[in-house]
């Protein structure tokens, strides 16, 4: 069956929304990004007999680092090879941009997606777990000792963390995992997302920002440190959540250290998402 692949256009919006409504019981995040993606390179539509039956996105995270996301096929047209063909075409187009890193993530229960990913030649990079706290406590604790480290110190601390060793240098923001480079940390510092503990010698690091899909809620990209550091971070996170009226705090953790820091914040394994598999394309 012939699938034509072309760049997305603003006029695709309604059809994209229709497909998203039929995906994951209407919980798809793609509608939040349509307006941005349609103005970026890498948003591809698959057409069969003149009708959009699926789409996918290759996003440039920074410099030569690319991320594949948002692959969807209308349930009515699934299991006919469209998802595979669309993915191969997006892969070919993205490789044409000469990425140094090309990655993606999927849930371990998504066997259709895993079939396609492995067939394309992606290799498992690491796996992680999503945590969530949906009843945010209203009792912020003490926040003494917090500091605002500069990017160099924050990046050095992060580089020594158990979490980054397990995640092979990647840090998450909702379903996107990117290289925790000095430039990335500098950008996070500029956004006000980075906190330290201890002024002379850094004893802990917290990176917290608005959730990518629910901007009123909080997403923790990194938390690690000594017990007093974790106590102060807890106070800060709860206070920030209360001030913003956040309904949830979320994050992904791969190492025992970050998992136990999440547990201290009252976060638990996400009830529906199992392991999240992050893949890397051998460049
Ligand atoms: C993932 C998705 C894009 C695949 O689209 P598709 O057009 O059905 O894909 P294909 O027809 O190319 O099938 C891909 C493989 O999955 C297999 N597959 C299809 N449906 C399956 C199912 N329900 N369970 C297990 N395997 C399945 C196919 O047999 C095929 O493998 P094969 O070629 O070895 O037989 C589509 O299922 C989808 O939109 N899912 C919801 C969104 C999603 O999960 N996106 C990926 C998130 S990262």
Entry keywords:
binds coenzyme A; 2 domains; 283 residues; elongated; two-stranded antiparallel ribbon; 33% helix; Aminopeptidase; alpha+beta; 13-stranded mixed sheet
TL;DR of this structure?
With 283 residues, this protein is an alpha+beta fold. It is built from 9 helices and 15 strands. Strands 1, 2, 3, 4, 5, 6, 7, 10, 11, 12, 13, 14 and 15 form a 13-stranded mixed β-sheet that branches.
Structure, described:
- This protein has 283 residues and is α+β, with helices and mostly antiparallel strands.
- The protein folds into 2 domains: 4-99, Gcn5-related N-acetyltransferase (GNAT) (Aminopeptidase); 131-278, Aminopeptidase (3-Layer(aba) Sandwich).
- It has 9 helices and 15 strands.
- Strands 1, 2, 3, 4, 5, 6, 7, 10, 11, 12, 13, 14 and 15 form a 13-stranded mixed sheet that branches. It has a two-stranded antiparallel ribbon with strand order 8-9.
- The structure holds coenzyme A (COA).
- Coenzyme A binds at residues 23, 71-73, 78-84, 106, 110-113, 115-116.
């Amino acid at each position: 069956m012939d699938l034509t692949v072309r760049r997305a256009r603003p006029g695709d919006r309604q059809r994209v929304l229709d497909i998203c409504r039929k995906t994951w019981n209407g919980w798809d995040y793609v509608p939040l990004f349509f307006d941005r993606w349609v103005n970026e390179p890498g948003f591809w539509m698959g057409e069969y007999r003149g009708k959009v039956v699926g789409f996918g996105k290759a996003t440039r995270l920074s410099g030569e680092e690319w991320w594949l996301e948002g692959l969807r096929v209308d349930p009515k047209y699934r299991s006919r090879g469209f998802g595979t063909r669309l993915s191969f075409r997006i892969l070919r187009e993205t490789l044409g941009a000469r990425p140094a890193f090309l990655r993606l993530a999927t849930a371990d229960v998504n066997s259709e997606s895993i079939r396609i990913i492995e067939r394309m030649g992606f290799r498992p990079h690491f796996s992680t777990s999503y945590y969530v706290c949906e009843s945010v406590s209203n009792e912020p604790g003490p926040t003494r000792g917090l500091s605002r480290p500069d990017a160099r110190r924050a990046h050095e601390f992060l580089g020594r963390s158990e979490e980054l060793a397990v995640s092979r240098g990647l840090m998450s923001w909702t379903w996107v995992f990117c290289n925790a480079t000095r430039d990335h940390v500098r950008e996070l510092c500029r956004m006000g997302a980075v906190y330290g503990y201890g002024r002379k010698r850094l004893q802990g690091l917290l990176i917290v920002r608005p959730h990518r899909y629910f901007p009123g809620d909080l997403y923790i990209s990194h938390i690690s440190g000594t017990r007093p550091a974790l106590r102060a971070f807890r106070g800060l996170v709860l206070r920030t959540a209360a001030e913003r009226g956040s309904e949830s705090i979320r994050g992904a953790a791969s190492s025992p250290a970050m998992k136990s820091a999440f547990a201290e914040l009252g976060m638990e394994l996400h009830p529906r998402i199992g392991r999240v598999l992050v893949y890397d394309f051998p460049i």
